[in-house]
Design brief:
Blueprint: H1 2-35, H2 40-78, H3 98-119, H4 126-146, H5 152-187, H6 194-220, H7 236-256
Length: about 260
Amino acid sequence: MEDYLNPIFRWLHIFAGVMWIGLLYFFNFVNASFAGTMDGDTKKKVVPELMPRALYWFRMGAAWTWFTGLILMYLVFWSGNLAMESGDNMMSDGLVNVWTHIMITFTFLAVFIYDFLYKSTLASNVRLVTIISFLLIAGVEFLMIHFGQFSYRAFNIHIGAMFGTMMAFNVWFRIWPAQQRIIKAIKEGSGPDGKDVALAGLRSKHNTYMSVPLFWTMMNQHTVLFNSKIAGIKGLVLLLIIVIGWHIVFQFYKKSTKIKGF
């Protein structure tokens, strides 16, 4: 049965992901600059018609990408591979232990640490909070590898799942509620609350930054080619890719402000 479920859920996962991330990039690299060119009357007409439609598919894409990804993780990594003291499977390079289970659980609970961090006063210092975020990611990876005994494929996809969970959380519990209030305010002709605009914009930007390294983790759960390729240190390639991915997104944001309409 699993032989049939695996390709079906991979297909659904990719389909939903294309819808979600495609709209994410539209919002951040196209719509963000375009919205600034509209006057008040145009916004009042366009935003209440465009954004609810776009945000519906955005939310559905996020939900189905996360759900199908969870099913795939069960099928590929967890099913039959999480018995204590078992080894030689896709999940673990050594013996499965209590840390293996703790780090799997943490993959899906880390979102609350992320949310707390970016609601704290530290978030006002972008450079500092970015460094802290990167060190926390590196710490999670270290624990997965050296305590949880995660295989190369396993820690890649679980870091990716951690990003994906944060992204889906942002869509449903931070971006969408804020956007509802923003759209309603624009429709009524009153100015949206600046806090809602800042929150929706920030969390959407976070999702964009997380998406690029997330793609890498999705690719590298299929291969071990880059395992210990830098100084023989397992996991260092992924950390480097996260930095490169963040820089690529940063450059895309700069480029998006320079593209003009006719």
